[in-house]
């Protein structure tokens, strides 16, 4: 069962949703199914779905594994 979502600011929630949308768009652009992408990232299809929705309770490692499986990278920015 997933952990309860941590308290997040509206800005943080919006950023996670935007990143999730970028991940989904990249997966679709590569014509990969959710199942294939999840297997490549080493996680369940349900977890991938939660990432694509931008859920903050998903572990950072799962986000990073998904990005790597799609040839993407996470970049931190200030401000």
């Amino acid at each position: 069962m997933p952990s309860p979502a941590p308290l997040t600011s509206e800005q943080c929630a919006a950023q996670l949703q935007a990143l999730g949308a970028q991940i989904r768009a990249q997966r679709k652009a590569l014509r990969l199914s959710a199942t294939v992408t999840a297997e490549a990232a080493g996680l369940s299809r349900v977890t991938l779905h939660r990432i694509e929705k931008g859920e903050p309770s998903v572990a950072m490692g799962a986000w990073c594994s998904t990005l790597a499986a799609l040839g993407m990278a996470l970049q931190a920015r200030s401000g």
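Residues 16 and 67 are 13 Å apart (CA to CA). The first helix runs from residue 10 to 29.
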